[in-house]
Structure formats: C-alpha cells, structure tokens
Fold:
Amino acid sequence: MGICPVCNGLEEKYFTCSTCGSELEEAGRLMDFFDDYSAYMPIDLMKLEDGYPEDYAKGLCPHLYKCPTCYSDVVQFIQE
Ligand SMILES: [Zn+2]
Ligand SMILES: [Zn+2]
Structure:
C-alpha cells in the first residue's frame, strides 16, 4: 500500500460539488467511517465496499468529502 498524500497531510485536494458547484470539504478517510459509523452510512456509500479490493490494487485511497452548501457526500479516490 502506498502513501496517500491527503492522509499524510502532504497535499490537499480540491473538488467541487457536482450538484451545486461549491468547494467540497475533506471529511476524512472513508475507511475510518466504516470502522466507527458503518451503521449510519448512506446506502450508496455502502455499495462501494464491494469495490475496495480493486481500488487498493490500483493504489487508491477513498476519502469522504462533504458539500457545505447542499450536504452531499462524495467519495473521491486519492492516488497514493
Ligand atoms: Zn488517504
Ligand atoms: Zn453541493
């Protein structure tokens, strides 16, 4: 597993909301949410669990971003 620049504070990634165009706020590693809050995850994010082995093989680190304007949750895969 490589080193994710976002997890390690080396780099900040900026993404915009596909719904309203606002700048998304980084909310943490998706895996941290599965550890602590898996019971509360929205259904569409839970589906992503099936894709994890492939994502790790490609060296991608899934992060959760939130839109402060419309409260959308967006998963972005950071290249490690
Ligand atoms: Zn990461
Ligand atoms: Zn938005």
